[in-house]
Amino acid sequence: MGNGVICIIQARMGSERLPGKVIKEIKGIPMIVHILNRLNQSSKIEKTIVATSTNSENDQLVEIVENAGGTIFRGSEDDVLKRYVDAAEQFEGEYIIRVTGDCPLISAEVIDTLIDKFLEAKVDYMRVDVPNTFARGFDAEIFTKEALIKAHKEATEARYREHVTLYMYEHPEEFTIEKMEAEESWNRPNYRLCVDTKEDFEVVEKIYDALYDDNSHFTIDDIISYLDNHPEVSNINQSIIQKDV
């Protein structure tokens, strides 16, 4: 009997600052495929799904994921909350990990730790503590299907429909919520490892150039060690301001 955990990666081709970034190639492989490969290192995720919209601009993304052996779900472009509900119901997830398509250094070690802590705590929602203790780019959230459906039923504002878990963590009186802070060796809030701009992409490319060897198996510890020893790399995107929700 499995643990009921599925991972849904939110991804689309539209991006204001770096259009088409989810399929931008690193070492000749599209970014979304690297994310899938890294998530496949998890010992606790039972199924990983890329959830995109039905808009035709995402057809190329769908083709790339399917050619790489990945699973696709297509739903609403703007109502991402409903897209998640529909995907969770189709793939029968009891617990849902949410990851975004702009985190090509996502860590299976972090996610497996998050799953363990979440199942032990028996809460509705838990997230990796970004950006206070973890670097951006290791972002992940986990929540129960029940909490997702409740948010879907109660959240009416457009921003809640666009940002899947915003209703949950803005209504702590309705949901039990916890965050997972980074252990000391992973505590690097000053690093920025998501991809939103060309500077972000340059940082990720340099990390892959240094650590990637025909697979995506290098770990969060490898990444942190590299950046600790190469401050000139982590400094490339230090001036980038994160967009507000």
From TrEMBL:
<protein>
    <submittedName>
        <fullName>Glycosyltransferase family protein</fullName>
    </submittedName>
</protein>
<dbReference type="InterPro" id="IPR003329">
    <property type="entry name" value="Cytidylyl_trans"/>
</dbReference>
<dbReference type="Pfam" id="PF02348">
    <property type="entry name" value="CTP_transf_3"/>
</dbReference>
<dbReference type="InterPro" id="IPR029044">
    <property type="entry name" value="Nucleotide-diphossugar_trans"/>
</dbReference>
